[in-house]
Design goal:
CATH architecture: 3-Layer(aba) Sandwich
Radius of gyration: 18 Å
Structural class: alpha/beta
CATH topology: Rossmann fold
Number of helices: 10
Strand order of the largest sheet: 1-2-3-5-4
Bound molecules: thiamine diphosphate
Largest sheet: 5 strands, parallel
CATH superfamily: Thiamin diphosphate (ThDP)-binding fold, Pyr/PP domains
Strand content: 5-15%
Length: about 280
């Protein structure tokens, strides 16, 4: 663990409430544009809450602090989800929420490193994040910087050859400072990931590539936190991956039960309805 610093602001706020706040902010941004990858944001909110309010070291007021853990969003189309947690963490000011996706906004609809504090890479060309993460993790080690690199990727990226080249080099270089987070929502643009290009048995594949692998329910905060703790504490000279099985649209039942596609259509009047439904489930 990074000896110098651990972000503890708002330590009295529960992770459940953090995740709820992330969902709420994402829905509010979706409402601004009338669209957005909201199914993914609602699904990954618990993992993001645990990342930014349990696992990561960072200084909100100094997003480029050299000692920070790096969080790479390989899936640039999930930007709405990352903006929500960056706001919740105080890295992005909340009053910019209203600018989401607009010209001159610091929050474009796909993640761009040069626009947004806390957006480490310009992801979005799928399958690139893990390779970048391997390079960063190697660089940090050579500089004797004890920070971790987290790469957040999707199940769709498991169908990219570049992911597996990166996986091989991560274990070749014994990158015990690299933690890959996979959002396994089993959805891609054209259908279910398992029906498009099946990557199962996934745990066995990562293990065979030399990684320490865990697979948990990504909407069970207790399990998510335990997986982060185990990945960080492991004393083995190899990279770690956590596969999170998540439910798209989690927290808004009428969207959850809709025939889910990669891009969930939300009608103009449904944004406020979704926010109202979320409000009913607000944790204490
Ligand atoms: C290399 C590459 N190919 C295609 C796309 C277009 N694209 C954007 S999102 C997406 C869906 C990918 O599925 P997944 O990453 O599992 O995301 P989810 O459906 O969970 O959002 C695709 C094909 C892209 N961004 N990059």
């Amino acid at each position: 663990m990074n000896a110098g610093y651990r972000h503890r602001a708002g330590a009295n706020v529960s992770l459940e409430l953090r995740a709820w706040n992330i969902r709420r902010k994402a829905l509010m941004m979706g409402e601004v544009q009338g669209q957005g990858y909201i199914g993914q944001a609602l699904g990954i909110a618990d993992v993001l809450a645990a990342s930014y309010f349990h696992a990561l070291n960072y200084k909100p007021e100094e997003p480029e602090w050299e000692g920070r853990d790096r969080f790479l969003l390989s899936i640039g189309h999930y930007a709405i989800a990352l903006y929500a947690v960056l706001m919740e963490a105080g890295i992005l000011p909340e009053d910019e929420l209203e600018t989401y996706g607009m010209d001159d906004s610091r929050m474009p609809m796909s993640g761009m490193a040069s626009y947004t504090p806390g957006m480490e890479i310009t992801g979005g060309s799928l399958g690139q994040g893990l390779g970048i993460a391997v390079g960063m993790a190697l660089g940090l080690k050579r500089k004797k910087n004890p920070a971790f690199v987290y790469n957040m990727m999707s199940d769709g990226e498991l169908g990219e050859g570049s992911t597996w080249e990166a996986a091989m080099s991560g274990s070749h270089h014994k990158l015990d400072n690299l933690i890959c987070l996979i959002d396994f929502n089993n959805q891609q643009a054209d259908g279910k990931s398992t029906e498009m290009l099946c990557s199962e048995p996934l745990d066995a594949k990562w293990e065979a590539f030399g990684w320490h692998c865990q697979r948990v329910n990504g909407n069970d905060l207790e399990a998510v936190v335990a997986a982060f703790d185990a990945a960080r504490a492991l004393k083995e000279p190899r990279p770690r991956v956590i596969i999170f099985d998540t439910t798209m649209c989690k927290g808004v039942p009428f969207l959850e039960s809709r025939e889910i596609t990669h891009f969930v259509r939300v009608e103009a009047d449904e944004w406020s309805k979704a926010l109202a439904v979320l409000e009913e489930g607000k944790p204490q």
